[in-house]
């Protein structure tokens, strides 16, 4: 399948998944079911009509307001849908029509949900993180069996253990600076990065901490937080992982070339 066509089809799929992720981000932290009751306006409680549930387009047609009570609908809903579509297309371009693509689409979707929940509630719920372990094992396992990726499964296992162990040590040394939810997510991030390369794993982990430090300094400089203020680390961890997946190997090679010749 041509790359452009694959990216387009995957983006359309991403729009649908993005709509579902909005439900996940709202309901999982509240311990609510993902399947019932149907989505409704949080202001008036009226169930959302199917035609208004079309990703992005529904929000635009309604002009960002509930059809029944006129209450504003957050622009984050279409942004999450569009953002998921873009990220899915990026993954399709990066990994192509390969058996590893479904694994990285899962990572993109669960990463968006976890990042938003962490921003909203400052926690990474076990309800999303723990089920990802068997899902990742199955999806990457299928890619190992059905695809042509010599060495990737072993790298993934080693990186998962190494990244998970590193995060555990950071948490153990300074538990006030990192939640244990980050530690639980770390092996998953390590597995995805290690599947690509060890260099991607190192770069992805390093950039997660770098992004967090830069944003933390910026927030303090603007007077919106103090030294003891806590910023959710999950979004930075996942942003670093995404960068590692996309260009981590190239950055690692460039660094080795500059330092070792």
Task: Show unreliable segments.
Answer: none
Structural class assignment: mainly alpha
E-strand count:
0
Describe the largest sheet. Answer: none
- Which value, in Å, is the CA radius of gyration? 20 Å
Order of helices and strands: HHHHHHHHH
Distance from first to last alpha carbon = 39 Å
Q: How would you state the average pLDDT, rounded?
A: 93
Beta-strand content: under 5%
What percent of the residues sit in helical stretches (DSSP H or I)?
Answer: over 70%
**Total helical segments:** 9
The outline comes out as globular
How would you sum up this structure, described in words?
It contains nine helices and no strands. It has helices spanning 3-27, 57-62, 76-95, 101-121, 126-146, 152-173, 180-196, 198-221, 234-260. The chain is globular, with a radius of gyration of 20 Å. It starts with a helix and ends with a helix. The model has no long low-confidence stretch (mean pLDDT 93).
């Amino acid at each position: 399948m041509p790359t452009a066509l694959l990216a387009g089809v995957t983006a359309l799929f991403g729009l649908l998944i993005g709509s579902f992720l909005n439900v996940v981000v709202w309901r999982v932290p509240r311990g609510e079911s993902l399947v019932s009751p149907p989505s409704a306006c949080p202001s008036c409680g009226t169930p959302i009509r199917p035609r208004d549930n079309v990703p992005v387009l529904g929000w635009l047609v309604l002009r960002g307001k509930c059809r029944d009570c006129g209450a504003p609908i957050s622009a984050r809903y279409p942004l999450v849908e569009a953002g998921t579509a873009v990220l899915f297309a990026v993954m399709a371009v990066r990994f192509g029509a390969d058996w590893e693509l479904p694994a990285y689409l899962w990572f993109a979707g669960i990463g968006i949900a976890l990042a938003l929940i962490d921003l909203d509630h400052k926690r990474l719920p076990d309800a999303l993180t723990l089920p990802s372990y068997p899902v990742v094992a199955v999806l990457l396992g299928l890619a190992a069996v059905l695809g042509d990726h010599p060495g990737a499964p072993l790298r993934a296992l080693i990186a998962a253990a190494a990244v998970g162990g590193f995060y555990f040590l950071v948490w153990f040394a300074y538990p006030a600076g990192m939640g244990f939810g980050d530690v639980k997510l770390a092996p998953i991030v390590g597995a995805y990065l290690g599947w690509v390369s060890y260099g991607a794993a190192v770069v992805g982990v390093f950039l997660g901490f770098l992004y967090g430090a830069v944003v933390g300094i910026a927030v303090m400089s603007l007077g919106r937080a103090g030294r003891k203020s806590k910023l959710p680390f999950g979004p930075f961890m996942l942003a670093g992982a995404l960068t590692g997946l996309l260009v981590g190997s190239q950055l690692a090679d460039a660094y080795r070339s500059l330092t070792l010749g």
